[in-house]
Automatic annotation (TrEMBL):
The gene is lsm2. Its main location: nucleus. CDD domains: LSm2. The keyword Ligase does not apply. This is U6 snRNA-associated Sm-like protein LSm2. One of its GO terms (biological process) is mRNA splicing, via spliceosome. InterPro entries: Sm, Sm_dom_euk/arc, U6_snRNA_Lsm2. It comes from the Eukaryota. GO terms for cellular component: catalytic step 2 spliceosome; Lsm1-7-Pat1 complex; P-body; precatalytic spliceosome; U4/U6 x U5 tri-snRNP complex; U6 snRNP.
Length: 120
């Protein structure tokens, strides 16, 4: 379930956007190529960089990386490009401009209307 705030109302996008995202995450991440993203790994390391490629296994290649907590991981300060295996990724933090909020709002309205029609 994905929640977001809009004019003090919480909308819940259940089917339209989230179902599409869970079925086709590869396609979604392909749209983020050449955007800056932050990848949080399962070992708590966060890497910020330019997404250069992603494959069907959600392996990620980042260029021009910066370690978010550089003092905690000084051995990574000289690394500029990384390939991250998809199975070690915990989260991918997206830039706000890359998410189409209008699409989310429309999907929310359609889902709410469908649920109301089902309830009747």
């Amino acid at each position: 379930m994905l929640f977001f705030r809009y004019h003090q109302t919480i909308f819940c996008v259940v089917n339209a956007f989230v179902r599409t995202l869970t079925r086709y995450p590869y396609s979604f991440f392909k749209t983020l190529i050449d955007h800056e993203v932050t990848v949080e790994l399962k070992n708590d390391i966060q890497l910020k960089g330019i997404l250069k490629s992603v494959d069907q296994y959600l392996n990620i290649k980042l260029d021009d990386i910066q370690v978010v907590e550089e003092l905690k991981y000084p051995h990574l300060s000289s690394v500029k490009n990384v390939f991250i295996r998809g199975s070690v990724v915990r989260y991918v933090h997206l830039p706000g401009a890359s998410v189409d909020t209008q699409l989310l709002e429309d999907a929310t309205r359609r889902e709410a209307a469908a649920q109301q029609a089902k309830a009747k």
